[in-house]
Give the backbone structure.
Amino acid sequence: MELTHQLELFPDCSVILLLFNHLKNAAALRKKAMEGSIEGALINPTMIVDPFQILVAANKAVHLHKIGKMKTRTLYAEIIFSLSPNNNISDAFKKFGISDSDTAVLIVLVVDREKTPNLEDITSQVEGQQVSLDELPQLTDTAKVKKMYKVTPQEEKIGTLLDSIVCRISTKDVL
Amino acid sequence: GISAPVVYFVDYATNSIYLEDIVGSTTVQDHINSVQQSGNDISSLLVLAEKMGELLARMHDEDLIHGDLTTSNILLRPPTEKLDLVLIDFGLSFISGLPEDKGVDLYVLEKAFLSTHPDTETMFKALLKTYAATSKKSGPVIKRLDEVRLRGRK
């Protein structure tokens, strides 16, 4: 049901993605995330076009975490910040993090490959239905995503929306 | 709006860039060679030249100078017949609006073209024709190209 991916550049790390629909307790979850009492990044799935987008952001966050150069205070906050095309941390949380009125949530965990993660800890706190990542495209708000990442029609003729997004995530600090 | 490998990750610690691998791609260089060797109809090469002209025109219109244009720095995504081009190796590129820089960019390609691929003058002519037709700023660029060609002759 969930998607697990081992990061090629950091083989001792695995990224796990869990998608929940028909969410009832978004506000409570957001509060827990702010308090730091939930071990995971709570992401708004309408801003995500493909799991790869998350992997690129997570890879960057893990890298910065390892070399002590994160811009935010936790790995999970850094993942959310990495998804944003700009350098405003609170804006990143507002746009990519979960909001009180959300009816779906994408939870991202980064775990040690050696350890078998206890997903129950997370899933038990979510009042919603866990669904397969295959359903993600149905939740994506493509127009909102294009606007956020400022993707031009010119670009779309050449590559996929995912390509445009990944480039912006990976080169954000270069430009 | 230019087809190039997607950048996946930039590692400032080790100064490395992780790029998309265009799986199963062929360089334009290898493609031209294989078409010429197999004695196949070279009209497809003229279409390829037109596509290249169009791609370079769009690149130069964004004031992007490649800096190392050769037929081995342009890839064809599979299936080759689709003539889906991908530009690679931007190690020498820079931004410039100057017709001189664009003219030199084309000149470098012309030299690389004609020295690597015999009998491709018609191909390059077709490339330039489409370049001129596609680019909004081609006039001064072609003029400079002619001047650079004259300078290059010993």
